[in-house]
Fold:
Amino acid sequence: MSTLTWLHTMARMARPAPPASGDLARPGGAGAAWPPLVAGLDPITAPDDPETIVAATLTARRSDTDAETRLLWGRYAYRAAQRLWGGACPATIGIGRVYEQVLAAQDLSFDAVRVCEQRLAACEPGTDVGRALTSGCELAVALHRDGQCEQAEQQSRIGLRQWQASPHGYYGHAAVVLLTAAAVRAGCGQHRAAARVLTDDAAHLADLDPACRHAAAGWLATVTITHPHRCGATPPAPPASGTLEQQQRQWLATLETLPAAARPGAAHAEPRMAS
Amino acid sequence: MTGLPPAPRGPADPLEQIRHTILADPQHAVAYLNAHAGTLPWPAAVTHTLLAEAHLLDGNPERALGHAVHAASLPGTALAQALPACAVLADLNCWTGQDDAAEVCSMYRDLAGDADDPARLVCAQALHAVAVFQHQACLRGRAALDDLVRAAPAGSAVLVMLRHAQTAMADSCRTGTDPAGPSAWTPVPGGYLCPAGQPQPDYLTSRLGRHHATHICRDERPGPHTAPREVPR
Structure:
C-alpha cells in the first residue's frame, strides 16, 4: 500500500465521515444503478458466496445505508471473506478495512482493535514483513483511538524497533512507522515528542511528496484534535488548542521544514537506533 | 441450457468460443458459464474472470466485482490465470469507483512486474495513474502517465491510448472539471477479451470519465507542485 493510500485510510478512520464508494459515481453511473444483491438475504445466515460478500461490502460502504445495516453486512462480509479466502488474502484485508471503518464511524473502537489484531495475526506467519509492519502500525492507531494509549505507544515502539532493526528491508515503510509514532504521541498531547520522532529520522521522510505531506498533516491534526477527550494517558493530556485548520498548518510546517528532507540521497541514510 | 455458438473463425477452442459469446451475448455467456462451471476445461479462476467480464458487459458491475475478487483470491491459482484475474479486478475497481482502486491497481502492477509481463505492466501502471488521478491527487496521476508516455514505443496502440488519457487529464486540470470520456464499456486489456498489447484507444479515457477527479492543481499554496503543468507532446 502506498504511503498516500495508507494516510487516506487512516484519516478516514480518525474522522469518521460518510466514506466514498461506488455511489460517488456520476449520476447514471454504475454505482447509482446497482441492484441490491443483498436484498432478501439475512446477514446472519447468508452463504459464503463471493457475489454476496462483495455486495455486502459495498452495502457497508454506502453512506445512504442506515448504521445497523452497514454494521451487519460489514461484519458478514469480513467473516465470510475470512472463511472463504483466509485472513491473509488481500481481498479479506481490504474488506476488513471497510468493516473497521464502519466500526470506527459508529464509535465501536474496541471491535476495530480486534479486526486489527486479526489482521496482524494473519500476517505474522507469512513472509511479507512490510505488510506485518503496516498492520502493527494500524493496530497501534486503533488502540490509540480506543483510548488504550499505553498499549498504543508500546505497539508503535515495537514498530519503530522492527523498522530500525532491519535497515535494508523497511525503507519503504519509514513514513508509516514514523507517522504512526508521531500520531500516537500527538494525540496524547506530547506534541514535542511527536515532532521529535519526525525530526530525528527526518532523512527517511525525504521521499514524502506534497500530496503525502498534506495528507499526513491532515491526519496528525485530526488525531490531535479528536483524540484527547477519551485519552487513557496519565496524566491526562491537555486539550489541543486551535482549530483543525490551524493544527494542520502547524503539522504541515513541521513536515515541510524537516532538517534533512531536502538533502539529496538522504532517504538512504541508516535509521537512527533508538536510545 | 444450449451450447455455445461457434467462434467466428479458427478452431473450436472453448475459450475462444466463450470470448466470442461474451462479446456477442453476455447474458447467454453468464448462463452457460454458471451451468457448466464444474465441467469447463480450465481452472475456476478463469471461469470467474470470464463471469466478471460478462457481468460487466451486461451492466452488472456488482456481480462482476464479486467474481473478479473471487478469481483473484482463489488459493493456488497459477500466475497465468492470476494475471487476467487481477487485470479485471483492478479495472472493475476503477470502473466502479472504489476508493481503494489505486491500491488494487498497485497490486496488479506488482504482479505484472513479478511475472515479467511488460504489456500488462504498462496497462497496470496506466490504470494506477487513472486511479490516483481520481482518488488521490491529479498531479500525481498525470506525472505517472507522463512517464509512461515517454517510455511507450512510437506508433503503438498503447501510446495512442496513453495520449488520449493524457489529453483528457490535462483538459480536466485546465478547466477544473471532471475528465470527459466515453461512457461506453471497452474491454480491459490483459483480461480474456482484449490482449494487453492491443488496448482500444479510448480504454483509459472510458475509465477516467466515470468518476470525479481529485484536483490539487488549483491549490492556492505556492510551490512548483501546485500549478497545472503543460502536457509534453
